[in-house]
Amino acid sequence: MIRIEGLTKSYGATQALRGVSFEVHRGQVVGFLGPNGAGKSTTMKILAGFVTPTSGTARVNGIDVTADPVASRRLIGYLPENNPLYEEMMVRDFLDFVAEVRGIPRERRAERIRNAVDRCGLRAVLGKDIHQLSKGYRQRVGLAQAIVHDPDLLILDEPTTGLDPNQIVEIRSLIKELGREKTVILSTHILSEVQSTCGRVLIINDGRLVADDAPERLGKGEGGTVTVVLASRTGALLQADAVRAMLEGVAGVTGVEMAEGEGAGTLGFRLRYGAEDIRRSLFEAAVRADLCLLEVKRQHVSLEETFRKLTGGEASRGPQDPGTPSLAA
Amino acid sequence: MGTTLAVARREFRSFFNSPVAYIVIGVFLVVAGWLYFSTVFVAGEASLRAFFGIAPVLFVVFAPAVTMRLLAEERKSGTLELLLSMPLRDWEVVAGKFLAALGMVAVGLLWTLPYPLTVAGLTAEGARFDWGPVVMGYLGLLLMASSFLALGLWASALSRNQIVGFIIGLLLCFAFYFIDKFAMVLPESAGELLQYLSVDYHFANIARGVLDTRDVLFYLSLTAVGLALTTRTLGNVRQ
Ligand SMILES: Nc1ncnc2c1ncn2[C@@H]1O[C@H](COP(=O)(O)OP(=O)(O)OP(=O)(O)O)[C@@H](O)[C@H]1O
Ligand SMILES: [Mg+2]
Q1: Given the CA of residue A44, which atom of ligand 1 is nearest to it?
Q2: Beta strand spans in chain A (E)
Q3: How far apart are the C-alpha atoms of A157 and A34, rounded to whole Å?
Q4: Chain centroid to CA A302: how far?
């Protein structure tokens, strides 16, 4: 469906893309992740046929987007970043205009518009001017214009920014539904969104692709953390240093940090571990030390951590965070 | 073609949905009306000579006022991204915008029709009112408007700011109006060249009632140049 090869783009002196290549097969829902300015929108703009690449090729269904832009754009529905719309138009007129320019024959237009309106829940606002709409409804209008011509490929640049949690859930389920029949590429800064909607994640950093995998695999690297809350079984006062030393001695533990406890008489720690599961030995060690485990919570390396590692955001974690004094070093 | 018209229709409607349209056309009608009636009543002359004489200057100002927002506004609000990712060639977008602008000017001119009708009514006693130059004059105005609108559209594509678009458009149109105004101090060949480039000169020819292909060709080529430059500038926006 999509084949991108060696795509580069420079805006004057800014190098926005430095050689991006990937393929997307029909029916996939792909999430685009990356820090601000990574080049997500640039890639999407090129695919959508708005921006010309500096070098490299992008094909949609075998059609080169620069060689035959009109043909490739016909296959695409595009929701640009910030969702620009003709503010002074009525929702109905706007969708009608898009349908016409998108080349839907007159006799099928009403039905296509009705379909998009129903899917995006726009029936109630058809007669309103776009500038009167709330952000969520604007976003729906943006989605409706992207699907009105029933395209094979949907490109959605940050489709859920600025929405309230209810609307986010609605739009996500709409995207999921669309993803059953179409190929979808969406970008987002919400990692959980990728986990809940996408079958595949592309992480882009500084104009380069740095990861390409299923979200659950990217999130399940080696090891993870176990968060524990401990209390004394005898009611004796807990010595943080002693407990920490005990935890450091547990087989498989590679690092110990203080975390929040559950009030007086309890202590919380975050333990890092490598390949093996430490929970069993942790329990035994606690019993030996006359401690009881009020809580044990294991977490695999999260998508968030993978993201930070791949996009160079690691330095901003831990020591700078005043709430959790880091003792892991 | 259909898509070009869709773009034109949308633009035309949104123009008449905005107060700017009524201000621009209103001011145009007031100024044009004043010119009509000042000749008719003050000079006691039942003709549109004064109006057609000053019309080029009016259009130097009004054409860029009509075109200033057409592309600048789309660039600023980001809707250009929407438009330029639809299955349209860039020239179709430009043609649609241009047709819309021409339609707006045509509507403005339509509203001036009562003026020649009044003048014709006043002529009734004795002499016959000569419609020939009036029809030619209006045709000439439309041709001249085309070339100014094409230049104004290009100016609008150059910036995200409507006001900048207006000023550049005004300067461009003014240059093509003013270019032959000191032709007489120049050697004859240079003077003729400047005259050929003058929008005003060709309009004067047409308004005299003679439709010469050279005059028509001049306007059509200037229009084509303006639209080609606009299309090129849109291409640069994609870079
Ligand atoms: N029109 C432009 N002119 C100049 N530079 C640009 C332009 N558009 C983008 N850039 C630059 O290209 C780089 C990539 O931008 P892009 O919009 O693709 O990032 P992004 O991954 O979408 O970021 P965000 O998460 O903030 O949306 C940035 O450095 C940006 O400043
Ligand atoms: Mg972006």
Answers
A1: 18
A2: 2-11, 14-24, 29-33, 55-60, 63-64, 76-79, 153-157, 183-187, 200-205, 208-213, 224-232, 253-259, 266-273, 291-300
A3: 12
A4: 13
Would the pTM of this model clear 0.95, i.e. be above it?
A: no
* Helices of type H across B2-130: 2-16, 19-37, 49-77, 79-84, 90-110, 114-123
Fold adopted by A2-218: Rossmann fold (3.40.50)
Which pLDDT score is estimated for B127?
66
Cα(A142)–Cα(A85) distance, integer angstroms: 7
Tell me whether the CATH fold assigned to A2-218 matches the one assigned to A224-310.
no
A contact test, residue of B3, B71, B85, B92 with most A CBs within 10 A: B85
Q: Indicate the SS3 state at residue A250.
A: coil
| B15-31 tens-digit pLDDT | 888 888 889 889 988 88
What is the DSSP secondary-structure string of A284-303? HHHHHTTEEEEEEEEEEPPH
ipTM of the complex: 0.89
pLDDT tens, B173-188? 998 888 777 767 777 7
What whole-number distance in Å separates Cα of residue A66 and Cα of residue A51?
A: 9
For residue B37, the Cα-to-chain-centroid distance in whole angstroms is: 23
- Is pLDDT of A325 > 60? no
Query: Does the C-beta of A39 come closer than 6 Å to ligand 1?
Result: yes
Residue in chain A lying closest to B79 (CA): A84
Q: Whose CA is nearest to atom 5 of ligand 1?
A: A11
Residues B95-121 have pLDDT tens digits of 999 999 999 999 999 988 887 887 777
Residue A249: is its pLDDT beyond 60? Answer: yes
CATH (one of 3.30.70.260, 3.30.70.920, 2.10.109.10, 3.40.50.12160) for A224-310: 3.30.70.260
Ligand 2: centre distance to CA A166 (Å): 23
